[in-house]
Amino acid sequence: MTTSTNGMLKMSELAERSGVSAATIKHYLREGLLGNEDDVLRTSRNMAYYPPEFVERVRLIKRLQEERMIELEDRILELAIEARETGRISRAKVRDTYEVPQNVLDRLEELGVLTPTARGYDADDVAIIEAISRFRAGGYEEAIGFTVYDTLRYRKALEPLVEEEVRVLLDRLAGKVDTERAVSIISSGAEPLRELIGAMHSKLLLAELRRQRGLD
Hints:
The protein is mainly alpha-helical. A two-stranded antiparallel ribbon has the order 1-2. Helices cover 62% and strands 3% of the residues. A hairpin with a 2-residue loop joins strand 1 (41-44) and strand 2 (47-49). Helix 3 packs across helix 4 (74-86) and helix 4 runs antiparallel to helix 7. The chain is built from 9 helices and 2 strands, in the order H-H-E-E-H-H-H-H-H-H-H.
């Protein structure tokens, strides 16, 4: 593979390194998801070079889309990217992006489900707010009994699971790998674990629904 122009990449090279098709990357570019147009060096009408940092950004965008298993609206995708890269998103930007009433956000914060700081919400907070927004859009409304207090049921169920998970991880990794490697292993397992728990919950939920409705 040959890089050109002080380490910048052709589109074909960017696609190869990121594992994402050129057509998809061009869509990201059109939607402004890869940053400022000034970052792109255009040497002719049909030739351009892209900074190597775009590789990780393209991978992140693709991963965020796959985690949610839907096509995210570009404004929501952009916010999720910002949360992952900068660590925090302002309260104002979150309010402008998601159709979640302020009183709902306030109650979730009071319950400790959301834990914003003066700098705003972290990436997990943004993911929770996105989920609440999608729940409400799908009909999970207070008018038929669904409230923010339902989140406490999930937290109560998850807390002992998390305590056991951390204990098992520490026991298995203690003395076997150094601290840096242990952090890397735990970090790399976060997203697959999220997917595993979500898939198992979905499977159990549908099975229990069929059982209670006498469909089995």
